[in-house]
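Recall that a protein's primary structure is simply its ordered list of amino acids. Everything else, from secondary elements to tertiary packing, is in principle encoded there. The following example makes that idea concrete.
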Amino acid sequence: MADQPVIRVLGFNTTYEMHPKRGTDPLNDTVDDKGFLLNEKGKRIMERVAEDWVSYSPAHSPIGTKNVERVRHLIPDPSRVGDDPEGVKLGFMQARWSQIEPAYEMWKQGQELPLNGTPLQVCPIFNPGMIEVLHQVGIKTVEEVRDLSEVHITRVNLPNMRDIKKQAGIFLANMGSAFSAEREAEKDAQIAAMSERLAAMEALLEQKTAPEAAPDNEVAELRSQLDAKGIAYDKRWAAPKLRQALAGEAA
């Protein structure tokens, strides 16, 4: 199984090229053997068509080889793969397109391309001048600075680039630790909140399932008097009803 590509999209652009126009009316259009429209002289009719292009590079090499290809040629199409019994070529195309498509959709909508990493602007070691130089060579994230190879370090026109690379790594490590600590704090807060809710639910359940409170002293005394006199009564009666029973017997 071939390794799956890990790429970084650098940008898109559109050109306008002359392409043969295809026929749309099989009954009335004059076309050649490939379906392209022909004029009265038998020449193909040309039209200007927008062509979208993408430039990308391997993720591990932001200053390395840059590929520039037509977007439509990168969309996975089994009919263009040819001999591919194990689906290796198609799998490679699908993996590559899955990384290009989201950025392409955002670009088509007029949005900026998403960054696969931490923007240089959030790291205090980079001033605007340094960021401009790094952008000129295609570096837009702190991770890309941290991962620069020795060969690519020499291509960045900034002094002390090795030290900058080291500081970028330290910044990302500290940011990762801070993020982990924040996540742990959030987790502890969630556990505490769940514990409070559980305690409240247990208290409510205990309240609803607790046995009825014992009758007060007056009710107990009235029942005792009725029992002594052999007067029948309903145990659901409260004190006023029990007093009525006693008064009725006395009358």
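Residues 105 and 111 are 9 Å apart (CA to CA). The first strand starts at residue 7 and ends at 20.
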